Amino acid sequence: MSLSADTPPAFADVLGYLQHHLQELTEHQNTSEHVINNTLASLTAQIQQLTQLMTSPAPAPTVAPPPITTSPPLVNPPSLVPSAPTKQRTRPKLPSPPNFSSEQTSGRAFLNSCMLYLCLAPEQFSCNEEKIFGTLTFFKDGRAMRWSENLFRQEANTGVFPIQSWADFEQQFQSQFFPVNAEADAVNALEGSSYYQENQTVDDYLDCFLTLVSDTGYTDPQTLVVKFRRGLKTNIQGQIATMPFGRPADTDPEAWYAAAQRIDQARLTNEAFQFTLWSTTMAPMRSALPWPVPLLMFCLPQSALLPVLPRPAPPVPSGGIPMDVDTIQKTCPTPPQGCYRCGEPNYLIKDCPYCLDVQRLTAEQQEELIEDLMALKDAVAEEEVGSSPEEDFV
Fold first, then answer.
1. Distance CA 108, CA 285 (A)
2. Is 58 in a helix, a strand, or coil?
3. Residue 141 region by backbone torsions, left for phi larger than 0, else alpha for psi between -120 and 50, else beta
4. Per-residue pLDDT for 341 more than 90?
5. 139 by DSSP, 3-state: which?
6. How many other C-beta atoms are found inside a 10 Å radius of the C-beta of residue 135?
């Protein structure tokens, strides 16, 4: 390609380099195509040789008369491309079901775990007898162990195991280890107050509530919403019921479940944030104090403090001055009297009115404490600004 005379030298050098590089790529491509064509030609020749060897007739024997032979059918040459190795699927290691004693509350969970194990490992149990015997190996304590021993005792007496199918085993297991009146117990729980949320999270409360609903067989959505609202904490139930926008309908239990979970999650997030804010705010205040003081000393009103009674004066001996029995007591320093927590000399630490464990406070009390401490900090800052010395120009 020819360039004009006014082309810059730098641009011409770049074009020359690109042309040279393109020429090298073209030569390399031609060389690769030549190698590939030679390889294909050699493979084709080998395939033809193999085909001729496989289709050629066998040599006739020299002693026996030649038999009447027909032309052998053409056989397709074997593929020269090696087949990919078949990767055998490996199953994950399954945990065994837990040992079972005789608790009726855990009978359903144990049976479910056994059924899942049998479904995920069918190659280990080829018949119903192996399934039943494999399940009985986990009956190692309590009434379950005695029930298993009774089954084998019947087999020893009669020569036939009393349970022949897995369905029969499930039926007898349910009659022995499932709650007798599960539906009535669940109805009584929902009609009472034992299922209330109290100190549980909404997720835990919802799990227990759905289990009771499944046992009772309640399906009316309005009844489910009423029962769910009764068990919720008052503040969570009130926030959902007074939502200005997006309030769930009283006939939509799923919407109530989701709204309660959102509010509870927001509450937990806010508590974590408040705790972080409190720890970062109180760290410099703690370091500024000369001795450890309880945090609630700053926000407790005077009326809430215990009255401090003066310590009675020691009695004065009337029989004169006793003689010195041990002179070492004079050299020993007298331990300081008073409270080691607040420094008050009128009482000991066990009688200190400021003893209060912050870790035992509820979330609402912690929030009130944080608000009081923030207000106290602002008040102290204002006092420091107001009490700054001013110059007198008199």
1. 55
2. coil
3. beta
4. no
5. strand
6. 23
Q: What is the pLDDT of residues 199-253, one digit of tens each?
A: 889 999 999 999 889 888 888 999 999 999 999 999 999 999 998 888 999 999 9
Place of tokens 């139930």: 237
Helix intervals (H) in 289-318: none
Question: What length does the chain have?
Answer: 394
Are residues 359 and 295 in contact, defined by beta-carbon separation less than 8 angstroms? no
AA identity, residue 163: I
Contact 365, 372 (CB under 8 A): no
Calculate Rg over the CA atoms of the chain: 45
Distance from C-alpha of 270 to C-alpha of 229, rounded to nearest angstrom: 23
**Helix (H/G/I), strand (E/B), else coil: 100:** strand
Cβ proximity of 144 and 101 under 8 Å: yes
Q: How far apart (Å, rounded) are the C-alpha atoms in residues 288 and 377?
A: 13
pLDDT in tens, 97-143: 878 876 666 777 888 888 888 888 777 888 888 888 888 888 888 88
Please, what is the average pLDDT of the chain?
75
Nearest to 304 by CA among 312, 316, 296, 314: 296
- For residue 179, which of 106, 97, 98 has the smallest C-alpha distance? 106
Residue showing tokens 């912690």: 366
pLDDT band at 299 (very low <50, low <70, confident <90, very high): very low
Q: Which residues contact 356 (CB under 8 A, 6 or more apart)?
A: 294, 296
346 CB-side CA count, 13 A: 8
Instruction: Say if residue 205 is exposed, middle or buried (CB neighbours under 10 Å; 0-12, 13-18, 19+).
Output: buried
| Contact assessment for residue 179 and residue 185, using Cβ atoms and an 8 Å cutoff | yes
Q: Which residues make beta-bridge pairs with 100?
A: 139
Quick one: average pLDDT of 53-65?
63
How far is Cα 177 from Cα 108, in angstroms, rounded to an integer?
A: 8
Specify the amino acid at residue 198. E
Q: With 0-12 CB in 10 A as exposed, 13-18 as middle and 19+ as buried, what is 154?
A: middle
What DSSP string runs through 8-36?
-HHHHHHHHHHHHHHHHHHHHHHHHHHHH
